[in-house]
Design brief:
- The model is unreliable at about 10-15 (pLDDT under 50).
- The protein has ten helices and no strands.
- The termini are far apart.
- About 65% of the residues lie in helices and about 0% in strands.
């Protein structure tokens, strides 16, 4: 009997404890895979394989691949919003500049995740009907609020806050897209490029010709 008991204990010790499947775990693994290989390579089948389950098991937690991508993008936007909220300056123009720097730096640090957020841009800067959720809108609204404050304080010409915000977003997004294409920049040149474009844009919108660092 003792020998049998030892064999049972040995068999039990070899059992791998499975981590319960959850939507959070599915999204976390999808994020990891996107960082490694890009969102184009992700499929529910490959995701299930990495999680050690069947593809059918995933449907209890996600609707389809688009739902997974949206969830990963949403988590990325939430982290971006947290970074924006950490900018404490009371000068709205300086806040817009720092937000722009953060946006480009984030793209450079994690290009694959940045490419994913492009699939779910804020309302107003995406194709009608492309996606009916507000993923990405909170981060855009933080910048738009800074634009409104600048207008209220006379730092920018009075106008359509949303259209002005889109103009700034488009310029900064263009820089970010250019940077992640692998442009050979010397250290610090990305920040210099952001500052040059944003300061000149703000100046053209009625702001001062220079924004304090």
């Amino acid at each position: 009997m003792a020998s049998g008991d030892n064999k049972l204990k040995t068999a039990q010790s070899k059992k791998v404890t499975r981590i319960p499947l959850s939507r959070e775990r599915v999204v976390a693994m999808a994020r990891r895979m996107i960082v490694e290989d890009g969102h184009e390579a992700l499929s529910l089948r490959s995701l299930a394989r990495r999680l050690g389950v069947t593809a059918a098991a995933l449907y209890a937690y996600v609707d389809d691949k688009q739902d997974v991508l949206r969830a990963v993008a949403d988590a990325g936007y939430q982290k971006r919003a947290e970074k924006y909220q950490e900018i404490k300056t009371k000068d709205p123009l300086k806040k817009l500049l720092l937000i722009s720097r953060t946006y480009v730096a984030e793209a450079q640090e994690s290009p694959e995740l940045f490419q994913l957020t492009i699939l779910f841009p804020p309302i107003g800067v995406r194709n009608a009907g492309k996606d009916d959720t507000d993923v990405g809108q909170p981060t855009f609204d933080i910048a738009a609020e800074a634009v409104k404050q600048a207008m209220d304080q006379g730092q920018l010409r009075k106008g359509d806050v949303y259209k002005t915000s889109i103009a700034i977003w488009s310029a900064v997004h263009g820089i970010a897209s250019f940077v992640i294409q692998g442009a050979d920049f010397v250290e610090g040149m990305e920040t210099e490029l952001v500052d040059t474009v944003v300061k000149n844009l703000l100046s053209g919108l009625g702001g001062p010709k220079s924004v304090s660092k």
